[in-house]
Amino acid sequence: MIMSFFDQFASPCLLGIPLILLSMLFPTLLLPAPNNRWITNRLSTLQLWLLDLITKQLMTPLDKKGHKWAIILTSLAMLLLTINLLGLLPYTFTPTTQLSMNMALAFPLWLATLLTGLRNQPSISLGHLLPEGTPTPLIPALIMIETTSLLIRPLALGVRLTANLTAGHLLIQLISTATTVLLPIMPTVSILTTMILFLLTILEVAVAMIQAYVFVLLLSLYLQENI
């Protein structure tokens, strides 16, 4: 029973071929296709409005130099948002519950922001490792601490996204299992558990959207430090 709770996080396979790549590419089919008309229907209007809203929120804390990253950050936000939300559907697989995938997204983008700062303003980027006015005896220790905090940023990004989504999926499965088990024994308790499950599902929808936004927002803040 304990192992079955974690089976949902195993990558599905067909004839020995992992289908995680297919589950990552499927959300792109939901994005509006290029068309000669700007507004084709209400769904396209809603999608374009959402893209515009996300782009404004991500680009607000950035200078004009950082606006070159608008396409990358907005595309990443939409990808994570659709993957997280589709993963809440029954009998689906959520790729963002895999730490390897989240690290594969976080590490290259974090490294790109770091290299951008070292190329454009190396003195300022290196100056972040040592706060101004630090006493001389504390300089070696602070440099080590700041360097460590800098290097664990991509790990924190990946672990945060993985842990929040994994915990939510586990809670939903545990409560749904309890609802099914209690139904023939204690119907009243089972109905109350179903209400809790409904509220938890709404909470997980909010968590899925918030975590996608936080992931990209932190990347944009890292970028702001280096431009």
UniProtKB/TrEMBL annotation:
Keywords: ATP synthesis, CF(0), Hydrogen ion transport, Ion transport, Membrane, Mitochondrion, Mitochondrion inner membrane, Transmembrane, Transmembrane helix, Transport
Reaction catalyzed: H(+)(in) = H(+)(out)
UniProt-annotated location(s): Mitochondrion inner membrane
Primary location class: mitochondrion
Single GO molecular function: proton-transporting ATP synthase activity, rotational mechanism
Transmembrane residue ranges: 69-89, 101-118, 138-158, 170-189, 195-223
Membrane topology type: Multi-pass membrane protein
Entry-linked InterPro entries: ATP_synth_F0_asu, ATP_synth_F0_asu_AS, ATP_synth_F0_asu_bact/mt, F0_ATP_A_sf
Record keyword Transport present: yes
Pfam family, one: ATP-synt_A
CC terms in the record's Gene Ontology section: mitochondrial inner membrane; proton-transporting ATP synthase complex
Domain of life of the source: Eukaryota
Family statement: Belongs to the ATPase A chain family.
Subunit relationships: Component of the ATP synthase complex composed at least of ATP5F1A/subunit alpha, ATP5F1B/subunit beta, ATP5MC1/subunit c (homooctomer), MT-ATP6/subunit a, MT-ATP8/subunit 8, ATP5ME/subunit e, ATP5MF/subunit f, ATP5MG/subunit g, ATP5MK/subunit k, ATP5MJ/subunit j, ATP5F1C/subunit gamma, ATP5F1D/subunit delta, ATP5F1E/subunit epsilon, ATP5PF/subunit F6, ATP5PB/subunit b, ATP5PD/subunit d, ATP5PO/subunit OSCP.
Protein name stated in the entry: ATP synthase subunit a
Upper lineage: Eukaryota, Metazoa, Chordata, Craniata, Vertebrata
Recorded name of the encoding gene: ATP6
